[in-house]
Design goal:
globular; mainly alpha; 6 helices
Length: about 150
């Protein structure tokens, strides 16, 4: 229990630090650089690293960071659908890890135990797959909630 609490605090702190860096790149320093910070969404990398290296035990800390991080960055937008979209984003990483495990890639462990990634290609594959699943899931949730909101008017 002590290790789980320490791990959760570490993952939460790391993810919040990543949100702070990303918010600086995306919103504060936008006039000095020519690219949009949303093209490099760093918090997704924190999700992938947390779930790949710590397994399902990191999901509560990641969800807590997913809820509080965006609210601190831009609170006017993230109250509507962000809690549900955060669940879809975390489950996208879990689905990508399981898909890579199922496909027969040479990875050690499962999602229920720590995965020791010694090959960066496997980690890069999980990042790309989970980003694709995340974009599909988050957009379906956003469209669904906006459709429900419009139909209730």
């Amino acid at each position: 229990m002590k290790n789980w609490i320490l791990m959760s605090i570490s993952i939460y702190g790391f993810t919040m630090m990543v949100y702070a860096i990303w918010s600086y790149l995306a919103f504060v320093n936008l006039d000095k650089i020519e690219w949009s910070g949303s093209l490099i969404y760093l918090p997704h990398g924190a999700r992938v690293l947390g779930i790949c290296y710590f397994g399902y035990k990191s999901i509560p800390a990641l969800y807590a960071a997913e809820i509080t991080g965006p609210v601190l960055v831009y609170p006017q937008y993230y109250f509507e659908v962000w809690p549900v979209a955060s669940i879809a984003s975390i489950l996208a990483v879990v689905a990508a890890c399981e898909l890579v495990q199922w496909s027969g890639r040479n990875t050690k462990g499962t999602i229920f135990s720590p995965i020791n990634y010694t090959n960066y290609r496997t980690l890069a594959l999980i990042i790309v797959l989970s980003a694709a699943f995340n974009s599909i899931g988050a957009n379906v949730i956003n469209i669904g909630t906006h459709y429900c909101f419009i139909s209730s008017i």
